[in-house]
């Protein structure tokens, strides 16, 4: 049986370069064509086939031995031609377009990052502190208890047992990362990832500290005193520098934030730096006038209720509120008056009020009688003349 010799492909023609093209010229030609015909960029089926030929041509012409076979008239990728097919021995499937660019211009994954430090800054912590109105108004030094991570006193943050030291990781040689090599049609593509043995530190702890298990810190309860300035409001936070969590490896501690929560007061309500309260006065006191003694947060103040004061009236006491947090001075105290009308009258009290109403020309209706004021009001609503 006769066999027909396979015609060698024109690999130079596929890449569009001369037979005496340099390696750089071949690479530039391939780079240009790969961008144009890669399946991720060009979905045309013909472009896919073209891309296979471009891969094969670059695989051959970038290899000195295979290129020599082509120059002698052979085809190293043809059966019996001495080749191992596109990609060469052990080549995996085609990589993505981004992998091509990474192979030429340098992949971020291949860049050496180096080992990460074992000592890192700690995180911030927050604590809720409840205070009374007098404490938030005038300030206080409040004791607090916090549960945070602190430096391990056994190993002083090193994480190693007494008499031992960190050791260089044998898996990564102290680099904190390991590299993997993938053979593609471009050649070898190198990528890096954190070492799983040392977790990227580049060192290992042969004998961890028995107290902190190698972390360099332990959790403990501490007592502190926080100075609350006068005039703080509900929800404000006070920062205590480096009183938060100590970082791994005994790293610098974060900050502690004390969040203020003001308890409700029995008498006063607060709006900013102003205080508000309600005081009930008898109807006669509102009509005749009187003097009240108001107990403020830090003093007692006399307040005059003028004769004829109406329900809902408000009295203002300047600078008897909460001290300003930033600056001097204080807010005001507002006293809201509720006029109390008597609900039960004996016969003499009722007679006196009726006589008083007559002297003022005010008609007082009696619910038991017909034709009084309420009767006329009812008739007006019902359309009676």
TrEMBL record:
Pfam families: DnaJ, DnaJ_C, DnaJ_CXXCXGXG. GO terms for molecular function: ATP binding; heat shock protein binding; unfolded protein binding; zinc ion binding. Zn(2+) 1 binds at residues 152, 155, 209, 212. SUPFAM superfamilies: Chaperone J-domain (SSF46565), DnaJ/Hsp40 cysteine-rich domain (SSF57938), HSP40/DnaJ peptide-binding domain (SSF49493). It is found in: Cytoplasm. Zn(2+) 2 binds at residues 169, 172, 195, 198. Residues 139-221 form the CR-type domain. CXXCXGXG motif repeats lie at residues 152-159, 169-176, 195-202, 209-216. It comes from the Bacteria. One of its GO terms (biological process) is protein refolding. Keywords: Chaperone, Cytoplasm, DNA replication, Metal-binding, Repeat, Stress response, Zinc, Zinc-finger. InterPro entries: DnaJ, DnaJ_C, DnaJ_domain, HSP40/DnaJ_pept-bd, HSP_DnaJ_Cys-rich_dom, HSP_DnaJ_Cys-rich_dom_sf, J_dom_sf. Residues 10-74 form the J domain. Binds 2 Zn(2+) ions per monomer. One of its GO terms (cellular component) is cytoplasm. Its cofactor is Zn(2+). A zinc finger (CR-type) spans 139-221. Homodimer. Belongs to the DnaJ family. Participates actively in the response to hyperosmotic and heat shock by preventing the aggregation of stress-denatured proteins and by disaggregating proteins, also in an autonomous, DnaK-independent fashion. Unfolded proteins bind initially to DnaJ; upon interaction with the DnaJ-bound protein, DnaK hydrolyzes its bound ATP, resulting in the formation of a stable complex. GrpE releases ADP from DnaK; ATP binding to DnaK triggers the release of the substrate protein, thus completing the reaction cycle. The J domain is necessary and sufficient to stimulate DnaK ATPase activity. Zinc center 1 plays an important role in the autonomous, DnaK-independent chaperone activity of DnaJ. Zinc center 2 is essential for interaction with DnaK and for DnaJ activity. HAMAP family: DnaJ. This is Chaperone protein DnaJ. The lineage of its organism: Bacteria, Bacillati, Actinomycetota, Actinomycetes, Micromonosporales.
């Amino acid at each position: 049986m006769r066999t027909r010799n396979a015609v060698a492909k024109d690999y130079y023609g596929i890449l569009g370069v001369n037979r005496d093209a340099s390696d750089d010229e071949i690479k530039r030609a391939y780079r240009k064509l790969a961008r144009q015909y890669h399946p991720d960029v060009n979905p045309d089926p013909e472009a896919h086939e073209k891309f296979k030929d471009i891969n094969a041509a670059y695989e051959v012409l970038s290899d000195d031995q295979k290129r020599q076979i082509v120059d002698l008239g052979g085809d190293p990728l043809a059966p019996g031609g001495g080749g191992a097919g596109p990609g060469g021995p052990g080549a995996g499937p085609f990589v993505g377009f981004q992998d091509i660019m990474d192979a030429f211009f340098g992949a971020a994954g291949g860049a050496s990052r180096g080992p990460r430090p074992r000592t890192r800054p700690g995180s911030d912590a927050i604590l809720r502190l409840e205070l009374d109105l007098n404490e938030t108004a005038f300030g206080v030094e409040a004791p607090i208890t916090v549960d945070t991570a602190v430096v391990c006193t056994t190993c002083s943050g090193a994480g190693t047992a007494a008499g031992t030291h960190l050791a260089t990781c044998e898996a990564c040689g102290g680099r904190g990362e390991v590299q993997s090599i993938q053979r593609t049609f471009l050649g070898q593509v190198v990528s890096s990832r954190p070492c799983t043995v040392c977790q990227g530190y580049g060192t290992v702890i042969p004998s961890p500290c028995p107290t902190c298990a190698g972390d360099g810190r332990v959790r403990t309860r501490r007592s502190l005193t926080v100075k609350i300035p006068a005039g703080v409001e509900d929800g404000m936070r006070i920062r205590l520098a480096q009183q938060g969590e100590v970082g791994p490896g005994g790293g610098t501690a974060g900050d502690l934030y004390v969040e203020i929560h003001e308890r409700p007061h029995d008498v006063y309500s607060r709006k900013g730096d102003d205080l508000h309260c309600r005081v009930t006065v008898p109807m006669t006191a509102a009509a005749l006038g009187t003097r009240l003694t108001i107990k403020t947060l830090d003093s007692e103040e006399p307040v005059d209720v003028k004769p004829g004061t109406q329900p809902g009236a408000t009295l203002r006491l300047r600078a008897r509120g909460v001290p300003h947090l930033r600056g001097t001075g204080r807010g005001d105290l507002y006293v809201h008056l509720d006029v109390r009308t008597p609900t039960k009258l004996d016969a003499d009290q009722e007679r006196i009020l009726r006589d008083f109403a007559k002297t003022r020309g005010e008609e007082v209706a009696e619910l038991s009688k017909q034709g009084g004021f309420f009767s006329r009001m009812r008739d007006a609503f019902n359309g009676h003349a």
